[in-house]
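User: Run a structure prediction on this.
Assistant: Running it now.
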Amino acid sequence: MTTPQKKIALISGQGEGKTPHAHFNSAEAQRQRLMDWLRVHRMIDTLAARRDLDILAPAARVHELRHRYGHRIDLVWVKRSTDSGKFHRVALYVLQREACHD
């Protein structure tokens, strides 16, 4: 199983022996990681975005993706368990399919 740190390293191109990218946690880099994830998995909740993508404020990145870049991302409220076993109401972000242009 891949640890969250290894997932981040793979996403950011920081494999073994590579220097970490200076702008890994810039808003732009976080938006790109989030969109890459959503294009593959179609959805992510707040806890997973923080844990797996190292995006501490996913709501802000989603807001930017919606309003600056026009992506259709829906919000659904769900209950999720944290690593400590406590349940919280968190946002589940769902990327809507893009319209096909023929």
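The mean pLDDT is 84.
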